[in-house]
Amino acid sequence: MSAATLEAPGAALAPPKAESRRAQGRLPLRRLVTRAAALGLGLLAWHLAASQKLDLGLVTFRNVPTPADVARAAWALAHSPKLGAHVGASLARVLGGFMAALVAGIGLGLAIGRSRLAGDLLLPPLEVLRPIPAVAWIPLAILIFPSSEASMVFITFTGALFPILLNTVHEAEAASPRLVASARSLGAGRAAILREVVIPAALPSIVTGAAIGMGTAWFCLVTAEMISGQYGIGYFTWESYTLQNYDDIVVGMLLIGLLGMGSSVAVRAAGRLAMPWTRAGGRS
Amino acid sequence: MIRTALRVVRPARPEAGADPVPAAARPVLAFEGVGFAYDGRAVMRDVSFRVAPGEIVALLGPSGCGKTTILNMIAGFLAPTEGVALLDGRAIAGPGPDRGVVFQAAALFDWMTVAENIAFSLRCAGRPRRERRRVAEEMAVLVGLAGREDAYPYELSGGMRQRVGLARVLAARPRVMLMDEPFSALDVQTREALQEEVLRIRDRTGCTIVFVTHSIDEAVFLGDRIFLLEDIRAGRFERFAVDLPGPRDAPENRLAPGFLSLRETIYRRMRHHG
Ligand SMILES: Nc1ncnc2c1ncn2[C@@H]1O[C@H](COP(=O)(O)OP(=O)(O)OP(=O)(O)O)[C@@H](O)[C@H]1O
Ligand SMILES: [Mg+2]
């Protein structure tokens, strides 16, 4: 686990500092131990609070399962045939929303970043839509889309779109005038400049936006799967609450957290593979 | 052979750095009464000169006098607000691969290897992969980068990056190379090696070069002619012809009497001015 993948979804839109990206590779043993100890302490505190049914007035742990309860519930779910169906349904929705957001975010972002007219036309409506939370989209999504599957994909899409879009716009605008001038004087036309200069230059920032967008897509999953009638980890979590299976709520939460983190890491790794020109320490 | 042709035409007296063109060759490059203003603020007016094929013209002058502006008009990034800038007798309408630009800090494409950077113009022209590779390798040899074709720019030193920038422009076989203080950020040894390289490249390819510099030494070592642009706002500028014996890329030239005296002349002119 690294600092770079711990950021709250949607919170930090700035690319991670080169410093923390370099730290991701090899951590000295002492810091690894410290980090493991921090996790252990967190678990211990949780265990104590839940087993003692700690009641602090403002918050109460009376109905919170202990780590052992959760582990047992997780073990049971792992051996149930439903796990595959839940994870599969959620993965399909998140990936669908994410891929759509990737295409739309990069496409719109390049248009807005490179053309003043496109910026004037597209930015105002997008700025209005941006602050609308995923939950608020639910009724309209149900009305717009004929199938509930499509509306769930749409809601994860709204979550992933803006981080990708904003990171693309920012870098496309910032494309070095010198590089563009060099390319033009070497015979590059508009299309070649976009393909050979603007997009590759923006790619590191797009990958960062995509990793954050992947996180926010998972973030919106529970919301999206409130519509679901059957499968999905978000649905599982929500259903567990209605059925008062408190152990399963935490299992669902942790599962979403782990899958979200894993897929963000996968996006970053794919990005590094696609960009052999960037050093581990960042761009030159 | 281009150089001998020039030497015949070139006047021997330093005060007469006049255009050597009319008799022999048609000018590659010509400014006719060019003026330029940024938002109404005039930088230069009534600038006229002609540059012969294979000639190196060094533009010298204090910061802000308009050297880069002249280069940008030749490159086609800016259009004159008065008069006309001509390439091979035709008005310059925009940037093109017949005029290559090398900037102070090589503006390399970080996402392309050395070979891909060098062959960028061929890629834009739709040349096949084989040919791109072959040209990239040739150019890498020419600028002393053989064997580094598959490196990415981040793996190169500043001097090597400048060489890639040079090779990238050369690969487009430009009629004119425009160089804006390309070596000013480099150490003395690298700078002098690259200056000699530029002279050899001119001899081999016959391309015409307009070279901007702050360094009198660099101007005298590289230039066939030097334009001192101090009064260009008032529509005047001084020209000096460089006359050095023997091969131009010989390092001894830096100590030749002709080199030192011209350097002193220009130095006094600039000091007297300031
Ligand atoms: N984009 C611009 N907008 C307005 N004025 C400009 C612009 N670029 C240059 N100038 C002005 O034009 C004049 C000439 O600038 P130019 O860049 O050609 O100078 P230079 O001789 O290349 O200087 P340096 O040696 O510092 O590079 C300067 O006074 C500068 O302030
Ligand atoms: Mg300049």
TrEMBL record, chain A:
GO terms for cellular component: plasma membrane. Keywords: Cell membrane, Membrane, Transmembrane, Transmembrane helix, Transport. The chain crosses the membrane at residues 32-49, 91-113, 134-157, 249-270. Belongs to the binding-protein-dependent transport system permease family. It is found in: Cell membrane. SUPFAM superfamilies: MetI-like. Pfam families: BPD_transp_1 (PF00528). Residues 87-267 form the ABC transmembrane type-1 domain. This is Aliphatic sulfonates transport permease protein SsuC. The keyword Zinc does not apply. GO terms for biological process: alkanesulfonate transmembrane transport. It is a multi-pass membrane protein. Probably part of an ABC transporter complex. Probably responsible for the translocation of the substrate across the membrane. It comes from the Bacteria. PROSITE patterns: ABC_TM1 (PS50928).
Automatic annotation (TrEMBL), chain B:
GO terms for molecular function: ATP binding; ATP hydrolysis activity. Keywords: ATP-binding, Cell inner membrane, Cell membrane, Hydrolase, Membrane, Nucleotide-binding, Translocase, Transport. The keyword Nucleotide-binding applies. This is Bicarbonate transport ATP-binding protein CmpD. The gene is cmpD_4. It holds the Pfam family ABC_tran. Gene3D superfamilies: P-loop containing nucleotide triphosphate hydrolases. Its EC number is 3.6.3.-. Belongs to the ABC transporter superfamily. It comes from the Bacteria. Residues 29-256 form the ABC transporter domain.
